[in-house]
Design a protein that fits this description.
The chain has 276 residues and is of the alpha/beta class. The chain has 9 helices and 9 strands. This is Chromosome partitioning protein.
Length: 276
Amino acid sequence: MHSIGVHVAHIIVVGNEKGGAGKSTVSMHVATALARMGHKVGALDLDLRQRSFGRYIENRRAYLQRSGLDLATPDYRELPDIAEDDLQPGENIYDRRLSAAVADLDQDMDFILIDCPGSHTRLAQVAHTMADTLITPLNDSFIDFDLLARHDGATGRILGPSIYSEMVWSARQLRAQAGLKPIDWVVLRNRLGAQQMHNKRKMGTALQNLSRRIGFRVAPGFSERVIFRELFPNGLTLLDLKDTGVSNLNMSNIAARQELRDLVAALNLPGVGAVA
């Protein structure tokens, strides 16, 4: 079993075992917001196939090189290769690769943000045990509510925790046994639509009821906006727009920037003030 050590950096894990909830967008915006505020931010992408978060940061580096701009950027690292001969008897190679990457960043960074794949993997499981703050973006629908708990649509009754919630519970147990502080689990209501107010209210009530049962906080995420798809190719975030020559932000962009400010404030991270 991997060891859960005490870390200097505050570790933020973005996890959700369903794809399409905006994990990489949330990861990039939170990591870059912290970097722009002057914090040293390390970044890891555990989705070794898709690498959406890693590609987002690579796009940013390429754009900054082309444009000559100097914008704060998270320090992205690949997981190091580990030779089989270097493993201890019974040690998992993925445990070693992740712990080595975190150890490499830990002494120099204020925060390490780890983006997990949209599926259950050994790397994601280990990352959850390292989380000081766990962010779970959730599309604002009962299809995604199923990620957290089994739900009776007719009565609204919670039938039991999901496999993902049970994994978070196990991670909390391991941290408690190691004498570490509890995970601050924050569920983001992401991709909120302007319509369907009745469904939005039902979803809000169900999440609040569930939060008390399985121990997470609910925070507002991002509304569904075209701007997020436009930012990715150049690796930009909402906070970078004025620095790249966009002087007249439209109302949608201004609202999105405020959503990001609200999100960072809701995370209540140590030593982090308001986003400018």
